[in-house]
UniProtKB/TrEMBL annotation:
NADP-dependent oxidoreductase domain mapped to chain residues: 32-337
MF annotations from Gene Ontology: oxidoreductase activity
InterPro entries the record matches: AKR_Detox_Biosynth, NAD(P)_OxRdtase_dom_sf, NADP_OxRdtase_dom
PANTHER family membership: NAD(P)-LINKED OXIDOREDUCTASE SUPERFAMILY PROTEIN, NADH-SPECIFIC METHYLGLYOXAL REDUCTASE-RELATED
An annotated GO cellular component: cytosol
SUPFAM superfamilies: NAD(P)-linked oxidoreductase
Protein name: Aldo/keto reductase
Lineage: Archaea, Methanobacteriati, Methanobacteriota, Stenosarchaea group, Halobacteria
Keyword Manganese listed: no
Alphabetically ordered keywords of this record: Oxidoreductase
């Protein structure tokens, strides 16, 4: 299939109609593709804003038109502007129809070490501040953005439970860069022993080429019926098809400005994975990005990937992954294209 014609086959936003799936054992249902807003208000190293308030509203409108109702943000995105823009957008709608998730952890005040991490002082202050920016009385899911080894798990879970009991937070989640299932399991064991709210949602990095969570992390989530909503489902753009092993890097690409990206993603092994991705994409008449998202949604233990975009057209393409049907054989081929970290055990 001519890849240049794939975009013409992508359904319109109002034809996508995202479905819902259970958010683990919370009792909530989440959109099958969640919307990540980390680019809202983000300023690049060159001083350019990736998504301004006007574009943010267009993207939120587009997600809503496709049936999406789960919006993921964090208090550091855009220096707080991201939450403000979402709050302004929500003010014109019925708040109860939307599930809003945010995160706390990263330092927000220079020279103040207590404005970082998950100590009680910081978490309570940060939650009050993000509720004010979102102009809402509560958020549905509060994530710790990373694990803070300087705060004892008991103190963390007691603090988070207090936020749930106060009605400011409904459910708790943990976002991570590296697998840390044992830390979540330990914290949840403490919470259960005290009758406190446990973590019921996990947010790891996971995609066709970043497979570090396969093994204990996903097994823990499956066994405990904990929801898993992966971030970076397209490998920071590597799985979109914009890179070619034999061509120069696009001037506007992440790889062009990041040697770390080149070392992590532009490898022969990963390009071999992309070759298989392209083959399956051709078979199902989809883009590589749509096919990579469909593969992730098919993975056992994954609840709902988090997708983002810079433009409405990109978002439409990504959300259309929900309309892609992969066979078991195609899923297996993609999975086998790059062995997971525990395949040899």
């Amino acid at each position: 299939m001519d890849r240049d014609n794939r975009s013409t086959m992508t359904p319109e936003l109002d034809e996508i109609d995202l479905g819902t799936v259970p958010l683990g054992r919370t009792g909530l249902r989440t959109s099958e593709l969640q919307f990540g807003t980390w680019r809202f208000g983000r300023v690049t190293e060159e001083g350019n804003m990736e998504i301004d308030d006007e574009r943010a509203r267009e993207l939120l409108d587009a997600y809503e038109t496709a049936g999406g109702r789960y919006i993921d943000t964090a208090d550091v995105y855009g220096g707080g502007d991201c939450e403000r823009w979402i709050g302004d957008w929500l003010a014109e709608r019925d708040r109860e129809r939307y599930t809003i998730a945010s995160k706390v952890y990263w330092q927000i005040r220079d020279g103040d070490p207590n404005s970082r991490g998950t100590n009680r002082k910081n978490v309570r202050h940060r939650v009050d501040a993000l509720l004010d920016r979102l102009d809402t009385d509560y958020i549905d899911v509060l994530y710790i953005h990373r694990w803070d080894d300087e705060t004892p798990a008991r103190e963390l879970m007691k603090t988070l439970n207090g936020l749930v009991e106060s009605g400011k937070v409904h459910y708790l989640g943990a976002s991570t860069l590296r697998p840390n299932a044992w830390k979540v399991a330990r914290a949840n064991a403490i919470a259960r022993s005290e009758g406190w709210e446990p973590f019921t949602v996990l947010q790891p990095r996971y995609n066709l080429v970043d497979r570090e969570v396969e093994g204990d992390y996903l097994e823990f989530a499956r066994q405990r019926n904990v929801a898993v909503s992966p971030w970076s489902p397209l490998g920071q753009g590597f799985l979109t098809g914009k890179y070619d092993r034999d061509a120069d890097l696009p001037d506007d690409s992440k790889a062009a400005e990041s040697s770390r990206f080149q070392e992590a993603y532009l490898t022969e092994e990963n390009f071999d994975v992309h070759d298989e991705l392209d083959a399956v994409a051709d078979e199902v008449g989809a883009s590589p990005a749509q096919t990579a998202l469909a593969w992730l949604a098919h993975r056992d233990g994954v609840t709902a990937p988090i997708v983002g975009a810079r433009t409405v057209d990109q978002l439409r393409e990504n959300l259309a992954a929900a309309t892609i049907d992969l066979s078991d054989e195609q899923v297996d081929r993609l999975t086998a294209a790059k062995p997971g970290p525990y395949d040899e055990l």
